[in-house]
Amino acid sequence: MREVPKTEGLSKVRGSKNDRKALAAHWVERANGRLLEARLMMRRGWGRAAVPSAYFAIHAAMRALLRLKGVNLKNPRRAFSSFNNHYVRPDLFPQALMVEAETVGKIRELADYYELAPIPKAQARYAVTAAARFVAAVEKFIKNNEPVKRKGSGKTK
Known about the structure:
The structure is a single chain. This protein starts with 16 loop residues before the first helix and ends in a 13-residue tail after the last helix. Helix 2 (47-68) packs across helix 4 and helix 2 runs parallel beside helix 5. It has 5 helices and no strands. The radius of gyration is 16 Å and the shape is globular. The longest helix has 27 residues, at 17-43. The protein has helices at 17-43, 47-68, 76-88, 95-113, 121-144. The protein is an all-alpha fold.
């Protein structure tokens, strides 16, 4: 039987501020790994396979920020909803990136669940590019510990 790795120092419920930062860093790393997978698949011409990796890169990036709030949601739909409530509605994260993330989710559903639905190369490229923008925004948010701002204004969005 396989041994379960120990989570020494990590609280099971909510966690301390240091635990949350460590978990956020872990999820950013996972997001970047998924993004790398998606880019490699696109280079090989596997657009349909790249879309789910792009989607799960976004999901992992969302989980990174949610962990900073002490929230741990594994279900992507719940994570999207919670991310919207914690970051987008309070104007801490750009709504435009959230709209792109939701669009990637729709493309991913087509790629995963509708075998005969064509996934044009342009759609797959859009999914990977949108995921890259989303992950970069999350990394910037965590690095600067402040909301992501719109270009050309002092307002957040």
